[in-house]
Amino acid sequence: MDFKRIECIFLLVFVAINIFLFVEIFQAPKLLNGVHTVNVQNNDLKNEIIADNITLPKISDEQGEGYYLATKEGHSWISKAKEQLSNNCTIVSSKDTDAIIVNLNKPVDLGNNKNKTLSNIKSFVLNTRNVYQGGKYKYIDSTADKSTYIFAQKSKYGLVTENHSQLSIVVKNNHIVSYMQYYVAPLNTLREKQATISSQAAIDALYTYSELPNNSHVLWISFVYSKLITTRGSIIFIPTWLVAIQNSNNKFTIFKRVNAFSGNVMTIDNEEDKGYIK
């Protein structure tokens, strides 16, 4: 290879490097300006939320990770539950639902100490002769009149807060009289972990789509798994942000869900979501 050819190659490489550096330097201010624009938009939203007299709990702009999860539909657990539970109850089930209603022949006295009512209910749930797989449920809330105590099913990926994974304990005159139980079979991942939006982004999405009323109070926001769809005999769950919102005027509480993958607001049945994580 002659000297002229080598010189030409070095010149072309030198020009290419300089063009690359020029492009990088030219783009840098734009990238920095983009970050600045996002920060300004976030600050504007925060100021608007404050101006609309909407109060928030502690939230974070830190992103997380989550999975698409799946489980099989089925009622096989019901026969196992009937075998496990004691004779001190009457179990009602239907082929049309994946739930059981358990009526206690002898109601369980919770005692006179109101401060121990919840702990006594939790002890009842953990007893394998009382509740099938009771250790897989976590207390989340109760109705205003303390007549129903709601538990959500736990998984290694997080709480599954669907109506069809709940345990609802019914209390009358300070006695456990019955309960309704749904149970979700073990969950399996469908894909690799994916990034999820922050709790701050979920609140911003609700506000942007006019789902946060003026003069309201966001009681809490929790990262949970919710049903997305049922297909070919499988139930698909996705990570969501579940938000409890209370109207400051009438104290009525509504629930909103935000898809933690896409940031879209999900349709929710507030009759089914009467009580969730505090």
From TrEMBL:
Pfam families: YycI (PF09648). Signal peptide: none annotated. InterPro entries: YycI-like. One of its GO terms (cellular component) is membrane. The keyword Transmembrane applies. Coiled coil: none annotated. The keyword Transmembrane helix applies. It comes from the Bacteria. The chain crosses the membrane at residues 7-26. Residues 39-261 form the Regulatory protein YycH-like domain. Keywords: Membrane, Transmembrane, Transmembrane helix. This is YycH protein.
